[in-house]
């Protein structure tokens, strides 16, 4: 295996240009089967989501017990329903075939865990290097649409190495380099459909310093180090890799705060800060180059999406509020769906994480809903006809790609609804339809 600290060769695939303007999102909560936290971690292009939900409260010196889940078609499924209520498992990745990988400890949350693969309703423990079962430990962090699995696990020499498993071929490919014993451990974080893998290499530190790390990219033939490409030095922690081989994550320049960055074509790009942010982290990236993550501000963290490197607070892009402030967007798929979570502090004795699936909605869809709302209000015939004529004109203009006319028609609707508020339209109803029309104008970028 070859290891190099030279510049990483530019990848031959070119990233798609991300849309400059972010979408508006509908919000669906992924409800926990228990009264405790549920944290979504990953999703596939079909909108299936995986993660872990707490099955009990914190146990001193043990941790919080939790079970891996699969969310599909509005239902949260416990992947290990027969495991004890003091065990821990977490699903970390799901491919478009619905195969799920993660980590499972059948003892306590702090006990040794093992990588697993869940498919067709059955979970199996993975042993990538064929070690003695009693020595097996690790976690599977990613699975692609070819069924390749990446993660960290025990080797026959009882060390922890990054692996790439391509079932049914075993043993797995050991991605851990050994240049004069520089690294004591390694772990793969994510992979794409071409089998490109990103991960972390652990280096022992010297007191009073802590252990340090390098990041790597495996291209199927060799492993290359990425940290040396960071401007100003520091270390890079990867989180996700897209189809073009672009890697999202965060950099830390020692004394500098953590900052969201993207590695692409042999170079790093720092993502712009959300207003007021003191630190940031990128957690997901899709095929269009849309990046999701979090921005840390004095008033609390915010879930962020970056379009063309420009940050947007996802809380401001929601069609309806999410009941809690979204603090981090964990992942984004190629359909533009996002999973994000926030902390519910309404019950001090049970502070819990709540997770949500955000789905892009078009202005045309929201306009259609507004038309349905006006019809359902049972207004006087003349008033309804007049209002609908303006909305239908906007609808026709949108279909023809005439945004200016659509904006004007919506403004005409707003003006009439305001004029009739408290007269032929109940005040509450008028406020509702005006807010919806103004939202559509915002989505269209009307002046």
Give structural notes.
The protein has four helices and 29 strands. The chain is of the alpha+beta class and 447 residues long. The chain folds into two domains: 20-361, 7 Propeller (Methylamine Dehydrogenase, Chain H); 365-444, no CATH class. The protein has a five-stranded mixed sheet, with no helix packed on it. Strands 2-29-28-27 form a four-stranded antiparallel sheet. It has a four-stranded antiparallel sheet with strand order 3-4-5-6, with no helix packed on it. The protein is elongated. The model is unreliable at 1-19 (pLDDT under 50).
Over the alpha carbons, how many angstroms does the gyration radius reach?
25 Å
Q: Output mean pLDDT.
A: 90
Query: How many domains?
Result: 2
CATH topology name of the largest domain, in short, is Methylamine Dehydrogenase, Chain H
Strand order of the largest sheet: 1-18-17-16-15
| Structure annotation, total helices | 4
Helix content: 10-25%
CATH class membership of the largest domain: Mainly Beta
């Amino acid at each position: 295996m070859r290891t190099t600290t030279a510049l990483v060769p530019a990848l031959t695939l070119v990233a798609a240009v991300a849309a400059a303007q972010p979408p508006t999102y509908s919000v669906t909560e992924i409800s926990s089967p228990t009264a405790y936290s549920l944290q979504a971690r990953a999703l596939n292009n079909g909108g299936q989501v995986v993660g872990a939900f707490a099955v009990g409260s914190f146990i001193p010196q043990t941790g919080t017990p939790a079970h891996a889940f699969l969310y599909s078609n509005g239902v949260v499924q416990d992947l290990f329903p027969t495991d004890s209520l003091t065990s821990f498992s977490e699903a970390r990745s799901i491919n478009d075939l619905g195969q799920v990988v993660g980590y499972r400890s059948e003892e306590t949350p702090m006990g040794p865990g093992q990588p697993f693969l869940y498919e067709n309703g059955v979970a199996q423990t993975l042993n990538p290097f064929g070690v003695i079962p009693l020595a097996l430990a690790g976690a599977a962090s990613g699975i692609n649409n070819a069924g390749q699995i990446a993660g960290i696990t025990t080797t026959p020499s009882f060390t922890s190495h990054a692996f790439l498993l391509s079932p049914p071929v075993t043993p797995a490919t050991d991605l851990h380099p050994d240049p004069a014993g520089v690294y004591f451990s390694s772990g793969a974080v994510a992979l794409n459909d071409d089998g490109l893998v990103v991960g972390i290499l652990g280096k022992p530190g010297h007191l009073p310093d802590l252990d340090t790390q390098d990041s790597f990219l495996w291209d199927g033939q060799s492993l290359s180090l990425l940290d040396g490409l960071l401007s100003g030095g520091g270390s890079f922690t990867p989180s996700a890799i897209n189809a073009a081989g672009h890697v999202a994550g965060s950099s830390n320049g020692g004394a500098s705060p953590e900052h969201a960055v993207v590695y692409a074509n042999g170079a790093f790009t720092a993502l712009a800060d959300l207003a007021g942010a003191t630190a940031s982290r990128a957690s997901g990236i899709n095929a269009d180059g849309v990046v999701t993550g979090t921005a840390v501000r004095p008033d609390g963290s915010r879930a962020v999406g970056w379009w063309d490197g420009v940050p947007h607070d996802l809380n401001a892009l929601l069609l309806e509020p999410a009941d809690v402030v979204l603090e981090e967007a964990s992942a984004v798929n190629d359909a533009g769906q996002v999973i994000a979570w926030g902390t519910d502090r309404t019950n001090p004795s049970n502070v819990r994480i709540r997770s949500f699936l955000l789905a892009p909605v078009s202005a045309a869809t929201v306009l259609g809903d507004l038309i349905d709302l006006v019809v359902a209000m049972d207004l006087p015939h003349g008033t309804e006809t007049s209002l609908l004529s303006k909305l239908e004109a906007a609808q026709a203009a949108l279909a023809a790609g005439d945004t200016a006319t659509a904006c004007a028609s919506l403004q005409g609707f707003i003006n009439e609804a305001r004029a009739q508020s408290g007269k032929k339209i109940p005040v509450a109803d008028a406020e509702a339809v005006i807010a919806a029309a103004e939202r559509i104008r915002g989505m269209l970028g009307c002046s």
